[in-house]
Amino acid sequence: MYILIAGGGKVGYHLAEELLAENNEVLVIERDPGRAAQIRDELSGNVLTGDSCEATTLDLAGVSRADLVAAVTGDDEDNLVICDIARYRGVVRTIARINNPRNELLFRKRGIETTISATQAVLAQIEQELPTQMMIPLLQLHSGLELVEIKLPETSPVAGRSVREVLLPAESLISLIVDPGGVPRMPSGDTRLNAGDALVVVSRKESLDMLKEQLIGSTHGLDT
Amino acid sequence: MNVIIMGCGRLGSRIAGILDRQGHHVTVIDASESAFRRLGDAFGGDRVVGNGMDASTLERAGIESADAFMAITQGDNRNYFSSQMAHEVYGVKRVLCRVYDPVREEIFRDLGLETFSPTSYGAQIMVDMLMHEPARR
Predict the structure, then answer these.
(1) Closest-CA residue in chain B for A87?
(2) Is the Cα torsion angle B30, B35, B39, B42 positive or negative in sign?
(3) For residue A81, is it left (φ>0), alpha (ψ between -120 and 50) or beta?
(4) What is the pLDDT along chain A (224 residues), one digit of tens a residue?
(5) B84 to chain A nearest CA, in Å?
(6) Three-state DSSP state, B102
(7) Tell me: domain A2-123, CATH 3.40.50.720, correct?
(8) How far apart are CA B28 and CA A91, in angstroms?
(9) B81 and A53 in contact by Cβ < 8 A?
(10) Which burial class, exposed, middle or buried, applies to B46 when counting CB atoms under 10 A from its CB (0-12, 13-18, 19+)?
(11) How far apart, in Å, are the Cα atoms of A24 and each of A21, B1, B49, B79, B109?
(12) Interface test with chain B among A57, A58, A77, by most B beta carbons within 10 Å
């Protein structure tokens, strides 16, 4: 595979290192001459100094024969321009690094195949590890509905009860239960809820506080 | 017409003034508040301080009800990014994008934007000027 990497920062450099080790043909394009010189030796010369947002630079790098273009600069606008020009030159697979998670929708709408958001990844990790974060917003649906994940603490008022016995706010629904072992179950009225279960719940945005109180309890944790 | 202009430099502020005088509702976005001095006291539109590539700034400027969006910052890539955001994410009907680099301008036009390159225009106009005798010496 011929892989073109736009941006020779930390992400671009390590990506190139890995891909070269797997015997791919790799070229890194780096705008800053100092940085380019610095990584050129370590990447066996596979570095081109130039602005990858310029079509002429991409052409010089042989973009039209690339199997994949990875735009991993620190600027989302540059990454979008690089992917769009590459696609315009006939590259089918483009991957963009996204720094602001809110920009992901735009990249998707532009048809850029895969997008990676380091910020999102770190955020997800933090949210998973924070013990006090018992309710994690997953997705906003149309018409004011929201999908959230709620992990039932030991002190949950509904632990040990069946789904039927749990009083939920109007238009709320427990749609999936994942037990502590990671096994997903479709809940029925008889399904018992246990501490440690993660519930995926659909609810109205304005009912989320009430939902939290009913499933987690009002005095739990540090978050309010 | 509701028009959002991103970038309050010489061109952006001038366009904002013309449209404002014509009775359109104009909102100007710029990262630096001091740029708004170019608009002058007579300007009756709105001023929004912020990064025009940021969805929240665009929303504060009323992108959801805008009829037109004009990207006129100094950065070609920034202008392209915000223009695509206005077009693809917010469905703004008219999106005009200034691009200095003539090569990129052609590509961006092929990718569906209404683009304008002062470099190409300026070059053509100055060559024409040179080739034609001035009307009066």
Answers:
(1) B111
(2) positive
(3) alpha
(4) 999 999 999 889 988 998 898 899 999 999 999 999 999 999 999 999 999 999 999 999 999 999 999 999 999 999 999 999 999 999 988 999 988 888 988 998 998 865 666 666 666 665 555 555 578 878 777 777 888 889 888 888 899 999 999 989 988 999 999 998 889 999 999 999 999 899 999 999 888 888 888 898 864 444 43
(5) 8
(6) helix
(7) yes
(8) 37
(9) no
(10) middle
(11) 7, 53, 46, 35, 34
(12) A77
Count of CB contacts below 8 A, A vs B? 53
Burial of A40 (C-beta count, 10 Å sphere; 0-12/13-18/19+)? middle
For residue B89, list chain A residues with Cβ-Cβ distance below 8 A. Answer: 105-106, 109
- Using a CB-CB cut-off of 8 Å, the residues of chain B touching A100 are 54
Helix axes B118-131, B102-110, angle to 10 degrees: 120
- Nearest-CB residue to B89 (from A81, A84, A106): A106
The nearest CA of chain B is from the CA of A92 a distance in Å of 15
CATH code of the domain made up of A131-215: 3.30.70.1450
Residue B81 has its nearest CB partner, among A55, A77, A85, at: A77
Where do we find the tokens 């279960």? A197
> Domains in chain B, please, with CATH?
2-131 (3.40.50.720)
**Which residues of chain B lie closer than 8 angstroms to A102, CB-CB?**
54-56
Q: What's the whole-model pTM score? A: 0.70
ipTM above 0.85, yes or no: yes
A76:B53 CB<8 A: yes
Query: DSSP character for A74?
Result: S
The domain ranges of chain A are 2-123, 131-215
How far is B49 from chain A, CA to nearest CA, in Å?
Answer: 19
